[in-house]
Design a protein that fits this description.
heterodimer; A: mainly alpha; 2 domains; two-stranded antiparallel sheet; 18 helices; B: alpha/beta; Rossmann fold; six-stranded mixed β-sheet; four-stranded antiparallel β-sheet; 10 helices; 10 strands; 27% strand; binds adenosine-5'-triphosphate; binds magnesium ion; LivM-like (chain A); ABC_transp_permease (chain A); Leucine/isoleucine/valine transporter subunit membrane component of ABC superfamily (chain A)
């Protein structure tokens, strides 16, 4: 104790010790990572050392840690109490208002003054991921089945639209249910072998499944045109009326139909509303099914499978419906992706996509619909906003994810609304009379 | 009502049940006692078809349910409050009860809810609380209530007194008696707490190493010196 006083208060000594320790760790890491650099030399590869850079990095860690300790001393973190019911209720009310407000904003967006082509394109991208996030949320957030191969169903949807539209001339609206049904079928195909798996093991198998689909798309050249992809996919039309700057004299186009001047942005706005509607449908469906026996069974399964069995829930059907329905929405989103891009190739359906969609669900708070929207805006819109950072973009992106997880380890909005209260007795009684989990 | 004959159950090569014979008649409370690892939980799980028995027979009423899938067994009128309660932690009390009613006719839901709230008034108070935040005793009550929501004719309880204070144990056992007498539900109960269980039960079985070694009325078993030595000494 007396020794400590020589250097100042005990907390400071402790802090210096802590900072030194961390600086040591930084040193050990920095020597190989920063300190050594390979360079081309006449005789082959040579090593160059960069000790000043190492020193800077270690110093940064030391000073940073020390500042953190001092800051903690000056502003001690308040002990974390559970949210009081009042605060919790206030947060809930805020989130409940946030939903409708966001929807209203989304509906008006194309007509706001700053909504140029670029903003709309980014918004369409964000909405696509919101829809994918909501779809995956059914599997991961509600049913608790960790799926790392979700992009496979997105790919199935995209390719089925591209192939049916190109080969049979079917319209987008005719292809949509086909794509959904095909993706759902693949969901069940994946579901069967993994019925007995949970957690890490399930994640590995689904990861493999996602890769399998991609490899099949690459190698089945006669159907998918292999790595070159499919181009010239029909663009969407306005319920049969094309967006065409110069239609044939006897044919109509979107702008002649409404008697307005042609502008290429009309198609973009249509695409925007298309994905908005598809995404909102996904959301409505999820909100509704959570209150039905199937949806509740998903959540119960996530909590405790053995308890579910002992209550007479059939886990097989329950899991398969979750896989199938989650996959179906990915299929819809895939069709949209194909018609929007006009070109698809296996490149677009790599594991990174699955990882991003999963990150959206996890950051959003596993099961929170609004949380997923926020997470999608942050993770998809964010990198667009910080485009100027160029090569540091991914660094900023990673840092942001770490920060969110430190700040809110259970996701942005982690609380869960009960699906029933005593007041809605009558309504539930009616809802329960609908059939229990069945495979579609 | 429940008749078990020569039941063998394996976990891989481990033989957990080695030919169990046992019977539970309609309206009874029957207790099954035995040391840790005797196979009590295994017996209850095998009745529910999970795992299925390797040999032997489980008859419920007139049906041979030995090979039935679990959800059909539950639908036939057997409910289980499994070992360790297994409450759905993130779901509310009300939702837990709703899950219990999965295999019941929905038109009875409201009256069943009133019924279990009368048995366990605390659950009504806590209906919107998350299951995982209930106390151990409340969770046990919820587990029993949840099992009752499927309107079973036979209720299987696996160690309902596990980890509970003596007062709460008494309360739980009183409710079990009420369920049996007033609601006419047959109860088959596994317990470590042999004293309470045998006092409550009409009849009892003793399971040792996967075999029934003794049976009799609750009072007979309580008076038996071997049982006193093995399961009752040093406490109660
Ligand atoms: N899933 C399993 N896999 C392998 N062995 C198991 C499994 N479950 C139980 N066993 C074994 O079967 C035997 C009986 O277990 P069981 O759980 O039925 O005992 P119990 O009588 O309920 O004990 P307790 O009073 O401790 O709950 C034990 O030897 C146990 O190790
Ligand atoms: Mg046991």
């Amino acid at each position: 104790m007396s020794g400590a006083r020589l250097f100042g208060p005990a907390w400071l000594t402790e802090g210096v010790k802590e900072a030194l320790l961390q600086a040591l760790v930084a040193l050990i890491l920095a020597v190989p990572l920063i300190g050594l650099k390979t360079v081309q030399e006449p005789g082959g590869l040579g090593l160059q050392t960069r000790w000043p850079a190492v020193a800077i990095a270690v110093a940064c860690v030391f000073v940073g840690r020390l500042l953190l300790v001092i800051a903690r001393h000056i502003w001690p973190p308040r002990p974390k109490a559970a949210h009081s019911p009042v605060v919790a209720a206030r947060i809930r009310r805020f989130v409940r208002l946030l939903g409708p407000a966001t929807i209203a904003f989304a509906l008006l967006l194309p007509f706001l003054p700053f909504a140029d082509r670029y903003v709309l394109d980014v918004s369409i991208l964000v909405l696509t991921y919101v829809m994918l996030g909501w779809g995956l949320n059914i599997v991961v957030g509600l049913a608790g089945l960790l799926d790392l191969g979700y992009v496979a169903f997105y790919a199935v949807g995209a390719y089925s639209y591209a192939l049916f539209a190109a080969n049979f001339g079917l319209s987008f609206w005719a292809c949509l249910p086909i794509a959904g049904a095909l993706a759902a079928t693949f969901g069940i195909l994946l579901g069967f072998p993994v019925l007995r798996l949970r957690g890490d093991y399930l994640a590995i198998v689904t990861l493999g499944f996602g890769e399998m689909i991609r490899v099949i798309l690459i190698n089945w050249s006669s159907l998918t045109n292999g790595p070159r992809g499919i181009s010239g996919i029909p663009r969407p039309d306005f319920f049969g009326v094309p967006f065409n700057p110069s239609p044939a004299p006897d044919a109509s186009a979107f702008h002649t139909l409404f008697g307005i001047a042609y502008s290429p942005i009309q198609r973009v706005i249509f695409l925007y509303y298309l994905i908005l509607v598809l995404a909102l449908l996904t959301n409505l469906f999820t909100l509704r099914i959570r209150k039905l026996p199937v949806g509740r069974a998903w959540e119960a399964l996530r909590e405790d499978e053995i308890a579910c069995r002992s209550l007479g829930i059939n886990p097989t059907n329950t899991k398969l419906t979750a896989f199938a329905i989650g996959a179906m929405f990915a299929g819809f989103a895939g069709s949209f992706f194909a018609t929007r891009q006009g070109f698809i190739s296996p490149e677009s359906f790599t594991f990174l996509e699955s990882a991003i969609i999963l990150a959206i669900v996890v950051l959003g708070g596993m099961g929170s619909q609004v949380g997923i929207v926020i997470a999608a805006i942050v993770l998809i819109g964010g990198p667009e906003l910080v485009r100027e950072l160029e090569e540091y973009r991914m660094l900023a992106f990673g840092g942001l994810m770490v920060l969110i997880m430190v700040w809110r380890p259970r996701g942005l909005l982690a609380f869960r609304e009960p699906t029933i209260r005593l007041a809605d007795f009558d309504r539930t009684a009616r809802a329960r009379s609908e059939p229990a989990a069945t495979v579609p | 009502m429940l008749r078990i004959e020569g039941l063998h159950t394996f976990y891989g090569s481990i033989e957990a049940l080695r030919g169990v014979d046992l019977e539970v008649s309609s309206g009874e409370i029957v207790a099954l006692i035995g040391a840790n690892g005797a196979g009590k939980s295994t017996l209850l799980m095998t009745i529910c078809g999970q795992p299925h028995a390797a040999r032997g027979q489980v008859r419920f009423g007139d049906d041979d349910i030995t090979r039935w899938p679990t959800h059909e067994i539950i639908a036939a009128g057997i409910a289980q409050a499994p070992e360790g309660r297994r409450i759905f932690a993130r779901m509310s009390v009300l939702e837990n009860l709703l899950m219990g009613a999965t295999s019941a006719d929905p038109q009875h839901f409201e009256s069943d809810l009133t019924r279990v709230f009368t048995l366990f008034p605390i659950l009504k108070e806590r209906r919107d609380q998350r299951g995982g935040t209930l106390s151990g005793g409340e969770q046990q009550m919820l587990a029993i209530a949840r099992a009752l929501m499927s309107r079973p004719r036979l209720l299987l309880l696996d160690e309902p007194s596990l980890g509970l204070a003596p007062m709460v144990v008494k309360q739980i056992f009183r409710v079990i008696q009420e369920i049996n007498e007033q609601q006419r539900v047959t109860v088959f109960l596994v317990e470590q707490n042999a004293f309470h269980a045998l006092r409550l039960a009409h009849r009892g079985y003793v399971l040792v190493n996967g075999r029934v070694t003794m049976t009799g009325t609750g009072r007979e078993l309580l008076a038996n010196p071997d049982i006193r030595a093995a399961y009752l000494e040093g406490g109660h």
